[in-house]
């Protein structure tokens, strides 16, 4: 039964980590109906570390864009500077969330990891998606590719990622995409850069959780964790491909309306006692 639960959590993680709909909001709802057995510390680790499966999916999908080391004629190694510059932008955008997250993670979790703040963040950023997409209608993006991102644009996107670190329910992908669209980045570039940002962010978050837990996993805990990660990996591959195809013909308004509906569900659930965080 725990393996089946791990599969379900992996499916939800793989879908909601990349679509701008808040994995936190969905995990809250899923946890109300399907609760993993085990101590609270392990469950907290599980919900973060299964994100590694989603990260491996990004690395696989975008390997050619992310891996800077190549071998000419299979003998002479060299570094592609454009990819090193891209990694510089990725790390630069991660600095605000990394600093604040490390210093105040437990504070934010205590203050905002509750049903009402999560629901409010879902609704607010859902409205933001709708407003920004309607405002952008007919406008040509100023920044069409990830390579065109300037230092100032990267820092602005990093600040929006910080909002997701502070307010659960904002959605890391949702916050960064909203920030990117707001400054004139194309949907494709905004989505790709969001995927790239996830690599150091989730690796760092997972490492911190594991170090805090102390690697004291039992055999059954490792099995549950492994199943969740593998499931998240395969689901993420499908979802990433879906999103990149979807945005070729559609905007993000549908996700905005979905976020608003989910936020209302979480609010109602908290008022009637069905959702407790």
UniProtKB/TrEMBL annotation:
Catalytic reaction(s) noted: di-trans,octa-cis-undecaprenyl diphosphate + H2O = di-trans,octa-cis-undecaprenyl phosphate + phosphate + H(+)
Give the function comment from the record.
Catalyzes the dephosphorylation of undecaprenyl diphosphate (UPP). Confers resistance to bacitracin.
Cite the Pfam families for this sequence: BacA
User: Does the keyword section mention Amino-acid biosynthesis?
Assistant: no
NCBIfam families, from UniProt?
PRK00281.1-2 (NF001389), PRK00281.1-4 (NF001390), PRK00281.1-5 (NF001391), undec_PP_bacA (TIGR00753)
The keyword Plastid appears for this protein = no
Tell me the GO BP annotations in alphabetical order.
cell wall organization; peptidoglycan biosynthetic process; regulation of cell shape; response to antibiotic
Primary place of residence?
membrane
Query: What does the UniProt entry say about where the protein is found?
Result: Cell membrane
Keyword annotations for this protein, in alphabetical order, are:
Antibiotic resistance, Cell membrane, Cell shape, Cell wall biogenesis/degradation, Hydrolase, Membrane, Peptidoglycan synthesis, Transmembrane, Transmembrane helix
What is the name listed in the Swiss-Prot or TrEMBL entry for this protein?
A: Undecaprenyl-diphosphatase
Q: Which terms in the Gene Ontology molecular function aspect does this entry carry? A: undecaprenyl-diphosphatase activity
The entry's other comment says: Bacitracin is thought to be involved in the inhibition of peptidoglycan synthesis by sequestering undecaprenyl diphosphate, thereby reducing the pool of lipid carrier available.
An example GO CC term for this entry is: plasma membrane
Q: Which family does it belong to?
A: Belongs to the UppP family.
Coiled-coil residues: none
Instruction: Report membrane topology.
Output: Multi-pass membrane protein
Fetch the InterPro entries from UniProt: UppP (IPR003824)
What HAMAP family is this protein classified in?
A: Undec_diphosphatase (MF_01006)
EC number(s) recorded for this UniProt protein: 3.6.1.27
Which residue ranges does UniProt annotate as crossing the membrane?
42-63, 84-105, 111-132, 153-170, 190-210, 222-244, 256-275
